[in-house]
Known about the structure:
Elements: H1 2-25, H2 32-42, H3 46-50, E1 65-74, E2 96-105, E3 108-118, H4 122-141, H5 148-162, E4 175-177, E5 202-213, E6 224-234, E7 242-243, H6 252-255, E8 256-257, H7 260-273, H8 296-300, H9 302-328, E9 333-334, E10 337-338, E11 364-366, E12 371-376, E13 379-384, E14 388-396, E15 399-406, E16 431-436, H10 439-465, H11 483-487, E17 494-497, E18 506-515, E19 520-530, E20 536-543
Parallel strand pairs: 3-8
Antiparallel strand pairs: 1-2, 2-3, 4-5, 5-6, 6-7, 9-10, 11-12, 12-13, 14-15, 15-16, 17-18, 18-19, 19-20
Amino acid sequence: MRNASRACTGLMAEFFVEEMSEILDGEKKVTHKELAERIDKKIDDAKFFQNLKSKLPADFDASQLDWIYGPLVQSGGIYDLKLTAQSDTNALHAGTIIAGLGLRYKSYCSIVARTYLVDPNESQESNYKLLLSIHEAVMKDAREGVAVKDLYNKALGIIKTKKPEMEKHFLKVAGGGIGIETRDNTLNINSKNVRTLQDGMTLCISTGFADLQNPDPQDKKSKVYSLLVSDTIRIRRDQDPANFTSSAPSDLGSTSFFFKDDEEEEQAQKSKNKKDPKVGAVAASNITKTKLRAERTTQSNEGAEAKRREHQRELAQRKQQEGKAQYSQAMGTENGVAQKKFKKFESYKRDNQFPSRVKDLMIVVDSKAATVVLPILGRPVPFHINTIKNASKSDEGEFAYLRINFLSPGQGVGRKDDQPFEDATAHFVRSLTFRSKDGDRMQDIAQQITELRKNSVRREQEKKELEDVVEQDKLVEIRSTNFWSACFPSMLNLFQIANLSASITSLSGQLWMASESLGMWTSIRMGFATSITGAVRSISFSVT
């Protein structure tokens, strides 16, 4: 869980914040979904995790990371603080920005969420400071023997004391249990849960205010905003809980960004340095853009320039319509980009093709059929390797856990949405977990599935590389003993005029061929160069 938390905080503090700052500073138009796709693709960058400031162990395997929450990016007055929220297609707004990440590493989960304020006013800063005080108080009181409801009542007590009007905006559930599962509902932090915390329990503390009114909005999208802070902690005996996601700072100084002050200073400096055009040796109105009088007529001819611009606009529209008509007729494309097609995979056609070992209701990796057979409710169920994303093994006490993750829609954005599905609205199995006391067998199965998956990916890549390869026609073997008649049918009427020399290293002669097609005699002089053993080394021709 610590490694999953370090990966989350690394993506948040060392990647998302940099991307967000660059977008806002450059005033770029980037949607929430596009920014979330960048974060999603980053978990495939093994070098990024190796160079994190929050050091990960040397044996950290980035391929074992999987999304359980988000990546979530929200701004512009539309916020959803639920665990099932998704990034929308609205552009990133320089106001209140909420970002949330949740990763699973080797079966254990971790979640972190932060709120970033761009040019906040005093009211927003005050409300965020109140949220931080509530968040820290809840985490500090999360100790062994404390009832879960007492944590929620602690938060409400602080709100009623400092700002009673904020109570209606506070979240109804301030987090819950987390571990192998994303959310353990038996540990939901609300005012009714009487369960007692125990040493070793892990919680996701999520405190926030929803739909707050901004008394001094910058624009229309800043009238309503929300605040959210989430951390993953572990309950410890007789001491404060361990905060696994503390390396992602949440204090006001680290989460506030100011851009307007710099712009106002620059504008003030420019206006200060700007001269009055009426003051000086020469009035600005008397300065022309051209040096020669003949060139001044082009400036006054505004009508011709307007006609030219209108003509250019018409040409651009015509070219755009022609392009749309051309590419709309293409098959299997959308917006000029080729779309992936859904592929069906078949493991077995009949029951008698199953491996014999499935009778024992055990996990079987069938490399010939590229299938993993899993026992589910007393029946062997085959899963083709192309439906499996990865497999991992973890130990907990005397048991070993094998977790198999499957490809399914809705796992995030980016590369996972590129996987086509026949019906994306159907119900999918996200993962299966098996428990056993035989840790060696669980490890062997995980390695077999990983190797089978690698071989399948390699075969797919080889097929893609061979798509553009043109097959060569089959070579036809010439079985005729007469080489000249097979290769040169017109050289049938051929005889030799002997002119042999006594040399053993060379042989020369003159051949006369009667060409029926040309009606003439053709003389072909052939020179044979031989070795001492009599083998022919070269043949030369001269035609007269």
